[in-house]
Amino acid sequence: MDYKIFWTEEAIRNLDEIIEYLQNKWTQREVDNFKAKLSKQIDLIHQNPYLFPVSSFQPRLRKAVLSKQTTIFYEVKDQTIYLVYIFVNYKSTDRLK
C-alpha cells in the first residue's frame, strides 16, 4: 500500500524550532546531519508505518525515536501518515494531544 505523508502545522512548527536552535548553537554540518537522519526516519515510516510502537502517552500516535533528543510522533489513517509532532524529549509530554 502506498501511503501519503502529511505534515501537520504543529510538526512544521516543531521542525522550524529545532532547525533554528541547531543553526544558532551548532554548525551547518550538524544541521545537515539532523536533516539527513530525519529524512531517513521518515522514509522508514513511509515504507512501513506500523514498524514503530504505539505511544504510551497517546495511543492513537506511533513513536519513532530519531535520537535521544528527538522523537517523531505520527498517526496512520487510511492511506495517509500524519506527522503530528517532532518532539524534543526534554519537554513535557503533557503537550501531546
Category from helices, strands and their pairing: alpha+beta
The helix fraction, in percent, is: 25-40%
Strand content: 25-35%
Q: Count the strands?
A: 4
> What name is given to the CATH topology?
YaeB-like fold
Total number of domains: 1
Query: Which quaternary structure do these chains form?
Result: single chain
Mean pLDDT: 91
Please outline the major beta sheet.
4 strands, mixed
What is the CA-CA span between the terminal residues?
27 Å
Described by the principal axes of the CA atoms, the overall outline is globular
SSE order, one letter for each helix or strand? EHHEEE
Q: Number of helical runs?
A: 2
CATH class group: Alpha Beta
Q: Your description of this structure?
A:
The chain is of the alpha+beta class. It has two helices and four strands, in the order βααβββ. The longest helix has 20 residues.
